[in-house]
Amino acid sequence: MHDVAIVGISTISAAGSSKNEIIKKLKQGISSISDISYFDFSGFSSNLAGNIDSETWEKIKKIAIDEKIDISSALSIYSVKMLLEDVELHSKNIALSVGTCNGGIDSLANFYHSKKIEDLKNYPIYKQMDDISKYFNFSGKKYLFNNACSASGMALSYGAQLIDKGEAEVVIAGGTDPMSEVVFAGFNSLKALSSENCQPYGEKIGLNLGEAATYFALESIQRAKKYNHKIYGTILGYGLSNDAYHPTAPDIDGSGISSAILESLKNSQVNPNEVTYVNSHGTGTRANDISEFTGIKNVFNDLSFPYISSMKGYVGHNLGAAASTELALSLLGLQEGVIFPNVQFENYRTGCNDNRILREVKKVSGDIIFVNDNAAFGGHNVATVLKTNTFGKYEQGTKKGGMTSKVYINKGSFVTDKGFKSFNMKANFATDNILKEYNSKYYQRRMNELTQMGIIAADLVCDKETKETGLVYGTPFGSMTSAERYMNSIIEGGLDKASGIYFQDLVLNSTAGRICKAFDLKSYSSSLSSGGNEDLKSLEIAYNAIKYNFCSNLLVGSGHEQSEVVNQITSKKFKSSSSFFKISNVKTKDAFSIEDIFSFSISDAKELLSKLNEVIERNEKVYIQNFGKSLEGVFDNLTKVEYEEGEFLSGGSIEKLIEKKQENRKIALVSISLIEEIVVVELEK
After folding, report:
1. What is the C-alpha to C-alpha distance for residues 371 and 264, in angstroms, rounded to an integer?
2. DSSP 8-state secondary structure symbol assigned to residue 342
3. What is the pTM of this model?
4. 140 part of a folded domain
5. Are residues 563 and 484 in contact, defined by beta-carbon separation less than 8 angstroms?
6. What's the rounded Cα separation, in Å, for the pair 91 and 651?
7. Cα 482 to the chain's mean position, in Å?
8. What gap in Å lies between CA 245 and CA 203, rounded to an integer?
């Protein structure tokens, strides 16, 4: 990527929403972390957070009430409105890439108090991309990444890839997470909060939570110059990894963050000695800072060691919006020719005593290449390489390489609570303890059903050697039983008695992280939600990762865990299941070749038929799984089409492929989500 420009920035956080106000505060080293005033913090170890001002919140709440949406969606809409006022994008076909950690959690908490179904229906995390798209009538592709605290970094990076590969003309990418007393209680249960202003890399231990929404407008440099758009910086590439270590703590040797940074530099065709600055994750916690600093040191040698700082001392840890918000703050500083330092602290933390961890503003000029890195629960790491020029000079990049790889589905598996099947075997379970029965070495106490099924499905397709293998995983709701148990711990005991055991599975990417740990999957790693067609949506992300040579082998998984709460959201009972593909750039016997994958949204059946017409013509059979509004009768006269109203949310298409694995012909799998988002996969045996 050498031609992706950031042409618009909108950021709302504790530091404010005015660019000039933010720059002034950070230049003066002013932290915006303050006392919490809007919920009872008695019983918590801290009453501090990075809070958005009350006047702004009243405007956001009005959007939520008027549109009947979750407060997280409203916060995103408010930010995107500011973005569109800042830059005129001259496009109707705008793609959207969103990252969030706990978006929708406020509606779930409201439901537990109100018991109103309308509150519950605003909970699903995938609904946010739909709310934003509908509000602005965006007609392009849309994605939602739930990689916890690295989610907006993933959203930005994938958005840049869409521009770079010509799959979108304009992308709005970023992330959001509002403050939630339910989430605050969870971090309190982990004893991670600080009762003072947090000091990343300083001797005082602990983090302050924050809230924010930050979005960027992305397009090519050529297009930016055509419309005379201001360019804040360019995105050169990104890298992903997984620690495969622990649900909530980073690998102590920093190898996960090292791997992500090294991959980002390789994919950007940038040498380590060209990097001036690392805008680091730097949470202030005991676990993160020394691990991250060690990981950074593993990448850069002493002679080319970059400056390092974290923005969390100014605005708090904004969870799913952390990557985008802290990048925005750094970019605003670099427009002024400065790197913002860490918030002031007196003494370095043991193991972090290096004067390149900045405590004072650093002046810079000319071309500045820097890395934005973020880590997360579930072990998900994202590093993005960017370049900015303090004089505003940008030239269209010369693309190097550009070769693509063929991608093959070599293995597939499908698991329910009754049994499993794959391309070459099938069996039933004899007990309810399915993972203990299948292979007890993978089982851990209190492991939820979603994770158990996911591990079995992954094991059925996983090779013994996984060193260069990654994972793309999707789930619409995560483990809802774990979320329910966490919420019940609060209802029964109060916020200060929130369960730290179940809190770690409140984030939807926890299952992906546990699968990575079970099989030591440390390569390209991401987690997403799309509303029921995650099996094919995950395959779309993974297919492009191998096609564009980010990696060569991936497990691609999805899963849904049935619960009464989910049944109320969907108004239909979908069965629990998990499914996996093993895909590679190397073909094995009986593999399916992936000829194409694409996704789009529809407004009605007529539009769907129009967009599927060519797919039906060029394939011998088209298998459609629908989880949204009924389309019974629409395909009755099309002999090539086999239509089903799916019963296995997020997994029906893989089950269908396993059924048809012996057929030597061109086929297409089509999956329609709960929000009418369609993914099409065309295959040839």
Report:
1. 8
2. P
3. 0.97
4. yes
5. yes
6. 35
7. 20
8. 25
